[in-house]
Amino acid sequence: MTIIASLLFLTALGASIGVIILSIRSAMPRIHEVIDMEFAPAMQRERRIILGDMRRLAPATIIAFPATPRPQNGGRLAA
Predict the structure, then answer these.
(1) pTM of this prediction?
(2) N or C: lower Cβ tally within 10 Å for the chain?
(3) CA distance 79 to 74
(4) What pLDDT was estimated at residue 36?
């Protein structure tokens, strides 16, 4: 019984290691792309939008939201 349990454990362990290695291997192009973008010598003026298989470049837009001034409550005390 112990031999069967050990074989099942080793099979599950080998399968999980294989799945992890395949996942990392399939993600390597994206990992290299992110590393290249992070350590690029110049700032990019475009934002990369990735939606599944569709990849395109779009200009980065900066939207400034107006900030409302907060009222000063210095003279009030809590009851």
Answers:
(1) 0.45
(2) C
(3) 14
(4) 84
